[in-house]
Amino acid sequence: MKKLALLGRILFAIPIAAIGISHFLMTPAFLERLSNSLIPGNLYTVMLAGAMLIIASIFIVLNKYVKVACLWLAGMLLVIITAIHLPNLFVPAHFDYALMEILQDTALMGAALMIAYYLDKANEDEAGI
Hints:
elongated
């Protein structure tokens, strides 16, 4: 079961890291979709978010501060959904992207919350708490 948990953490963290890396390779077309964002400082905020995604994925793979990393990731995704993707639903040119990104980020947020809960629960069971 421990090998399955390790595989699950790695399979979850790799796409998160890839998304984080992609934040440093943004194209003008992608940055245009941020023009409706409720978050200021688009380019700097994108790079900061990318760095935080990479750091969270590293902690998840290393099994260090997994609960904190996953809760932080879930919080970031909630902010991204509400401040970036939801406003883009009301821009006809961005509707399709926004809808898919809301669904994707909601699924990732749910997975992050499950990992935070179940890995914390597993660590408690191992410690006999």
